Amino acid sequence: MATAYTRTYRARLAQYLTNDFMEKHVLFEPGPEVHGEPLAAGLLAARQESDPNFNLPNTCVDLRNEAHQMTFFRQLEQAANHALYPDRADQWKMHNEMPQFKFHLAVDFPTFTAYPERDGGHPYVHRVDFGAVVECVLIRSDGGAQLNHIDYHPEDLDQRTR
Prior knowledge:
about 30% strand; globular; four-stranded mixed sheet; alpha+beta
């Protein structure tokens, strides 16, 4: 059951997320007593059910804790505002006929990447270490920027920890 705080937080967060981002990449329910790994696998399964051709890893953030919600919100709000500074215009790159702004975020909240099953096995879920880096992609929206994608590529990103 969502608390009043979580409902308010979701409304504030929605201004920085595309319509389907929360559905595909954010864990809010159930409570923190349930481990995040099976929930992350469930988000991947839901994406595969809605698109049978989806065969990519799915990264999600676990925001079932109010402190993690605030940390994620502050980082996202700062990145979205930063991306809109006039001197950042050249950092927006076209992808699929849409301007996108990529940035890297150090993980300060539980994050999981679920990998599709291989050879008939179960999906593999990796818990991303705190301090690791995830790639985020913003797109332009009405007067702002919204998070459209989050991804964890340990082989592609510099995985320094702080």
